[in-house]
Amino acid sequence: MKTKELTMSQLILLLSVWRLESNAYGVTIRRELARVTGRKYPYGTLYSLLEQLHKKGYVAKSVGDPTSKRGGRRKILYHVTKTGREALRTTRELQDTIWEGIPKGTFIEE
């Protein structure tokens, strides 16, 4: 099966999960998204996008250990799968091709 390119939202979210490595769960992912984009994603939007990525096989979920800090609740942890890494690679290659020959500061207004 050919890996499809990611939408911008999927790309940003998948890279955030990848950056967070073994510490990727709702709160930390949302924090990373805000750091990268400057916007706060509502939790509903975040979990909807994560579920889409999960259904496509780009992320896998696992359940962390319960902690007293969380009132005994478990974290749902996410990690990028091999298919997700392939989608990131395909998207990066497409973007590199699209931007080829266009200098970095081209669209800066003076």
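Above is the first protein from milestone M3; the second protein from the same milestone is given next.
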Amino acid sequence: MTASSGNIESSQPSAGEPGESLGAAVTFATTEHFTLQTARSTTVTEASSRALGFLAVLSSSLIALAFIGQMSELGTAFYVFALVLLPALSFIGLVTFQRLAQITSEDIAYAQRIARLREFYVDVAPRLEPYLTIVRGAAAAQRLRDASAHPGGWQLFLTLTGMVALVNSVIVGAAGAIMIDAITDDSLAPSVAVGVPAGILALLLHIAYLRRSQSAVDGETHDEFAVVAPPSVPLKPRTDGPVG
């Protein structure tokens, strides 16, 4: 088996020849490539479903809160319901945000592993390099360092994770404002003075967590259960005698 003219050509190698091992390696690599691409598709599906689920819960909860406020004329029942509901929504938003951050890290790790396989394809068939967009060597290492150290600020808000972070921060600020409003008896200034900083602080904490999680992505150890091979367990000989 040779890698001439950018194609892998079979030359009927005998058992044990290097070409036979290379053919098996290519087969394994393409299978792994397909598996990783499927895993990336799964992360996109899970991220979309989790974000949509959070927004659906939020929408129905706000409708219920509006009904309670109308029926109670923004009385005690409204404040009790809001101060029970909004912290619960904030918790749901927090765990949704954290899972989306994990999914983002998983997607980046899968993409790095796929890029490594693409480099293998180019090594096997060098004439494929003009047709595959791939950065190799020192330039690749420098780009990865820059991307890990400085994830884009505005770009974070263009993702599902950033959107959930913003919405959840608004919920936190609203909960703080309503709590102060209940304590100070319909005083607007203290509510704004507490709610706005609380929301901004929550947003900054969300973004800091997201930046840290993206900077810590490591394709080698991200999913240890998937990349660490456990020791094989030797088969125990049967001790039972022949039947009959």
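Note on the second protein: The chain has a mean pLDDT of 79.
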